[in-house]
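Comment thread on ticket #2218

A.B. wrote:
> Attaching the input chain for the structure job we discussed in standup.
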Amino acid sequence: MKILVVATTPYPLFFRPILKEKVWGGRNLARLGKILPKDALIGESWELADLPETVAQGQSVIANGAWTGMTLREAIAQRPEAIMGTPTAPKGGFPLLIKFLDARENLSLQVHPNDAFVRRHPHTHPKSEAWVVLRAEPGAVIYKGLKPHVTRKNLARHIATGAVIDDLCSIEVRVGDCHYLPSGTCHALGAGIVVAEIQTPSDTTFRVYDWGRSGRRLHVDEALESISFGLPPPPAPKPGRPVEVGGLRTTPLVKTDFFAIQRIEALADTSLPIVTSGMPVVWMVLAGGGRINTPDAEPVDVATGRTVLLPAELAGSVARLTESSVLLVVTLPSPIEGLLAKETPPRGQKSPKSPGL
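C.D. wrote:
> Ran it. Output below, let me know if you need it in another format.
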């Protein structure tokens, strides 16, 4: 019987990377400090995952401190308020899935279920995601959405004939680009690209087309039912205005209903006080690193390629970052924002009734 140890003081959490071998994968994740199996083509490193037990290798295991060896789900069950905060203690696990992806070849053209599909098929789950480009070969592209004139009938015919490429919107990418892909968007990550992926916690994917590869199942019927036809491709979010304070440059990349992403760059060796505001925060270290000091806990070193979960009740922590360090900071929507949106309608309009209240 496994004995769970309850930590009395929240501390920054690291996890054992879950490496996924893929036919389209490569070896570039070694540049992010991942120890890759010899000769294996690794397409994904799941950095922070809390999916149902039915998903193989779908739960992250803590790699440091008093909770070493526990899954994130077990730790949340022990201390939900400490990790998630009282307003957001989840019933179904951590609400994000965090990955690094290395596309040596094109990923399959795919789609994740939209809300309408999920209502008809309750065993499935929607999945919205964002890609932040970390590496891109010259001319590398992503496929994001269908051209507006493409109909379900057209797409079905072109999938069968292999002419589907003409239906796709292709976008050349550069390092630093951020692209948001809401559920229902037909998409593919193109060859020669490495991204950080932040997504809602679902592994439901319908494969539309696999670029001539054989041996992998397609899900054409499910995909055609899930794709949002007749809509323009989702635009790339425009980064917010950078703010420079205390040797740090902070740039907002995207804000969605599910998460927000900021890029933080250290312009010199500097300190960054960690403020969680009662919500968990995720850091993905893209370059450089440093050390996080926390009262009543061992210091932890952060380095390129590491992902750290900062629990909601983490207090008094300070990160010392080296010059040229780069972080992606991922936050969850504040319940206060949702409350204010409901309670302060535009002038002249009545506040809508909240269901169940």
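A.B. wrote:
> Thanks. Noting for the ticket: Residues 338-357 have pLDDT under 50 and may be disordered.
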